[in-house]
Amino acid sequence: MSNADERNHGGNIGDGTGSALVGVINAGSSSLKFTFYEGVRPILSGQVDGIGVRPSARATGADGVALDPPDLGHAPAAAPAEALPVLIEWAKRKLGDRRLEALGHRVVHGGLRYSQPQRVTPALLAELESLIPLAPLHEPHNIAPIRTALALRPDLPQVACFDTAFHRSMPEVAQAFALPRSLYDEGIRRYGFHGLSYEYIASILPERAPEIAEGRVVVAHLGNGCSLCGLQARKSVASTMGFTALDGVPMGTRCGDLDPGVVLHLIQQKGMAAADVADLLYRRSGMLGLSGLSSDFRDLLASESPHARFAVDVFCYRVAGHIGALAAALGGLDGIIFTAGVGENAAPVRAAICRACRWLGLELDEAANRLHGPRISTAGSRVAAYVIPTDENLIIARHAHALLGSAGEASPKASSPKG
Fold first, then answer.
1. Angle 122-130/139-152 helices, nearest 10 degrees?
2. How far apart are CA 203 and CA 56, in angstroms?
3. How many Cα atoms occupy the beta-carbon half-sphere of 34 within 13 Å?
4. Parallel/antiparallel/unpaired status of strands 158-162 and 118-119
5. How crowded is residue 108: how many other Cβ atoms within 10 Å of its Cβ?
6. What is the Cα–Cα distance from 249 to 227, expressed in whole angstroms?
7. CB within 8 Å of 304: residues ≥ 6 apart
8. 384-393: per-residue pLDDT in tens?
């Protein structure tokens, strides 16, 4: 297909001579979030949820006013990537003559090789496919929309931004498992995840919490997936997640910390196949497993079930314990930041965690916490606590602008592995 033909192809978005845009696609296992940016200003955003079960869509314009969302049709998408063509056609109509300069994508795992965003190439996609076993719930769904967009617009630059990249600054002692060195050299080490969220928080700390911005800060990204990161001078020093996104604190359906002997017991004594163990640990554990009710904290906090209460108690206990461990890794603590869906909205969860951290010098302002901050610690608290909403999509848009603006059409270059 010629370039002229491609510009008239139905899959294009806003191919006129208007201002250039960057689109961001953040795909999960059953959702597709999107934002189109003019510079750093979002002008069109929304998401498709419930894909594969009961899909629904919502969207807003630049002023935050709700728009008619994409029509998912009578044969809705069974996977997030399948919703992309419908989204692209809908966005084309909404964006008019604005020109789409690039698409940026969240990719959970970048492995050892990538500590910076990368221009998408066939070679990069092949490498990312090899990382699927390390992030089986995420990586396939991150990659599929890239391939779909490539088929629709082979001329459109795409940028992959990695959740692991932010943590490449962790020292070797924070990355290592106590396994033979040969396995470490092969890449079996702690990577950390949610890096795009942490990068955003680190970028706005000087504005939102200047008194702790360059100090020792624990950021708690608490959502359906959860992790914590220790920042020193806004760089990652340690993370609760490790080789995969299973490690650390309990999550919606993932187990978090687990004695490896439990896995051996399930296989050797209970005769479970590896696939069944993976399903148990990724999809049937965490809040869902503990409560027997739901993986959603809104359901758990509203329930009178003692199992629901127990699940929340376990979660808060584990998060507080990891904050203490990260404070040790940092050599002290100046502040805690709560972010993501649970961290930003669940005041009772934040309160329980902060009370458990009183020994660190954190004094909770109960009234401010009920109002969701932004500062939820008292004026005299030695350790400050804040609620700061995250924005992974904005970080991806910034990276796409920076990479394409500085590199132009140059061939992408992988960053060197870092110890």
1. 160
2. 33
3. 29
4. antiparallel
5. 26
6. 6
7. none
8. 999 999 999 9
User: Known catalytic residues?
Assistant: 163
C-alpha distances out from residue 321 to 62, 187, 218, 257, 357, Å: 41, 27, 12, 11, 9
Low-confidence ranges of the chain (pLDDT < 50): 1-18, 407-419
pLDDT tens digits, 325-336: 999 999 999 999
Structure tokens at 389: 């909403």
Comparing CA positions, the residue from 218, 226, 263, 256 lying closest to residue 377 is: 218
H helix intervals, 246-356: 260-268, 274-283, 286-291, 297-302, 306-330, 340-345, 347-356
Q: What percent of the chain has pLDDT over 90?
A: 72
Give one DSSP letter per residue of 327-389, joined into a string: HHHHTS-SEEEEEHHHHHH-HHHHHHHHHHTGGGTB-B-HHHHHTT-SB-B-TT-SBEEEE--
DSSP 3-state assignment of 39? Answer: coil
Angle at 230 between CA 226 and CA 231, to 5 degrees: 125
